[in-house]
Amino acid sequence: MRLLFFVTLLLTSACASQQVSVTTPTTPPENGQVVTGGSVTTAPSSTNTVDPVPARVAESDTTARPPWLKARITEVLAERKRNPITRILRYDYEGRKVYYISAPCCDQFSNVYDTQGKLICQPDGGITGKGDGKCPDFDKRKTNEKLVWQDPR
């Protein structure tokens, strides 16, 4: 508490000697712009900035989605939006096409399914972050990444 008081006092005295005012807006202006010293800047937005941005954007998968996958997408859309959002990616793994569905949150498992909708493994997530151990080489051996779907909300 003393440190906070000291820092506040230090900043107050430094700003007072240079006649600098520090303000923190609680609501953005109605027109979305802030005018300071004659220049106009865009006000900060309150949009969600927690969703991770992939390091690379996967090529889109334009093939037909199997019925079980369409049903899974419908289930996700019936739930509230997840953070991070659900992404479905298709890969080649062990000589076959597989679908990777991202985990809904935290220590939960991501799932890898074959084209028939059978669960193959859970390559990541869980308390250790290493999944269920059934495909420990998934990240190293997956190829040909295609984005099948991601929650648009």
Topology of helices and strands:
Blueprint: H1 2-18, E1 33-36, E2 39-42, E3 59-60, H2 67-78, E4 87-93, E5 96-101, E6 111-114, E7 119-121, H3 138-141, E8 143-150
Structural class: alpha+beta
Mean pLDDT: 78
Placed side by side, the strands forming the largest sheet appear as 3-8-4-5-6-7
Q: What is the string of SSEs from the N terminus onward?
A: HEEEHEEEEHE
Model regions low in confidence, pLDDT < 50 over at least 5 residues: 3-11
Shape summary: extended
What is the helix fraction of residues, given as a range?
10-25%
| Count of strand segments | 8
Radius of gyration: 24 Å
Distance between the termini: 42 Å
Q: Major sheet, described briefly?
A: 6 strands, mixed
H/I helix tally = 3
Beta-strand residue fraction: 15-25%
Pfam families: DUF6970
Keywords: Signal
InterPro entries: DUF6970
Organism: Hymenobacter monticola
